[in-house]
Amino acid sequence: MDPAQSSKLSDGIEAPWWKLWAKRRNVVMLMAFFCMQVVYLTRLSLNVTVDAMKADLGQSWDTEQLVSSFFYGMLVTQIPGGFLGSKFGCTNVITVGIAGTSVLTIFTPLAAYGGAGWIIAVRVLQGMFQGVVFPCLLDLWARWAPPSERTNRVMVTFVGISVGTLKAMFIGELLVESVSWESVFYIFGVAGCLWCVAWFKMIRKSPDEDRSITDGEKEFIMQTLGNVEGQSEDVKHPWKAIFTSTAVLACAIAGFCQNWGLVNTLNMFPTFLKDTLHYELSPTGFLTTLPYVSAIKGLTIAGPLADRLQVKGLQTATQVRRNFTCASFIAQLIFMLAGALVLNPTAAIILMTIAVAMGSFAWAGYVVNLLDMSPKSAGVLMGVVGTFGTVADIVSPVVTGSLTANKTVEEWNVVFFVTAGLYLLGCTVYWFLASGELQPWAVEKRARDRQNDQCAIKYSV
């Protein structure tokens, strides 16, 4: 059912806006929102403590090597994570993923006393556990989000990324200064374990397995989703069709380009300011937090806007996904280059902050697009797109480092022009290849047979 049609139906729940828990899908959304916070608290625990850790232990380890080893673990589990989620239940796999990451976070101080090799091993394992989370969350929304609310619910979930990052920065620094660097790992790890208990007890993979949902809301969700195949049975993923689909390729390339750009506008930007303008950002200063705050604002605008355009019939799903992704890429390109070329710290920070805010709109495009194309395989598709994005997370800092050996303005300009070129590439590929329609390969063979039989009966009458 398309968003315009599903918006005409009702879940039968009459409750004030502040009574979020009246609708079970809101509880799922809030828990998914906190899931993203836990993901980034545990992921960034090393980032916010590594300097204090090295100083305390008298070590001169390569910080970039320790931090980036996490992504090598993520690289290998995202596609399997999507498959495992559809096989054993996305909520169960998420529980295992977060629990594993949290326990490893608690043991990170012990690994640190063992040496850099042990830290890297723990980080790789953490990445492997966390690699399953994003695919399974998208699989969850394929079963819980009515088409008229789809984008907004995914975007609220992603707001947890920026909130979790900000919490890691502020709470992490506070704990390092007032308690110890080890306490960061213990507290963030325990927080993850507590979330796992709540998630395991409260959330089910689909409405038909949730005992707390009202009959009206369950019927509403199931009806709007057309009782997505795979709700209560094993899903057979069309692997060949997925890996040869140009629409999937468009999303994967968009994911690669988006992550490459974010690495340079978020992670590498403080280094750019220091190298070229001799301006050093405070790790938890106001200006440092601006991009993350702007991302929150962008996500909270992009989600409702994308859904509203479809509900009102102003744009089709394909048009919304293309317009949001491509407009976001062009906007990021413009503001990123302006920020790089202005050679004024304050202006550069403001322009890069706008670029990050515009980047939020891309997630309402190519990420949610996966739910449009194949709800039953959304987790696997997210695994494919996430893998491409993780490759960018690994390669981009290496390329940037090699291009800026002398730390000159000219070298950094090359970095940003390369990034701009990738944004343009991603925009072009996505515009021409992306589709917001349910793909033929996403429909089970028996469903296609039923459709063919109905057509045969129609023409024989």
From TrEMBL:
Q: Name one Pfam family in it.
A: MFS_1
Q: What is its main location?
A: membrane
Q: In terms of domain of life, where is this protein from?
A: Eukaryota
Could you tell me one molecular function GO term of this UniProt entry? symporter activity
Domain (Major facilitator superfamily (MFS) profile): residue spans on this chain: 28-438
Recorded topology in the membrane: Multi-pass membrane protein
Keywords of this entry: Membrane, Symport, Transmembrane, Transmembrane helix, Transport
Keyword Transmembrane part of the UniProt annotation? yes
Provide one Gene Ontology cellular component. Answer: membrane
Whether Signal counts among this entry's keywords is no
Alphabetized InterPro entries for the sequence: MFS (IPR011701), MFS_dom (IPR020846), MFS_Na/Anion_cotransporter (IPR050382), MFS_trans_sf (IPR036259)
- List where the protein spans the membrane: 27-46, 66-86, 93-112, 118-142, 154-172, 184-203, 241-261, 281-303, 324-343, 349-368, 380-400, 412-433
User: Which SUPFAM superfamilies does this UniProt record tie to the protein?
Assistant: MFS general substrate transporter
> Record's Gene3D superfamilies?
MFS general substrate transporter like domains
Subcellular location(s) per record: Membrane
Return the PANTHER family for the record. Answer: GH23975P (PTHR11662:SF455), SOLUTE CARRIER FAMILY 17 (PTHR11662)
The entry's protein name is: Major facilitator superfamily (MFS) profile domain-containing protein
Identify the species of origin: Culex pipiens pipiens
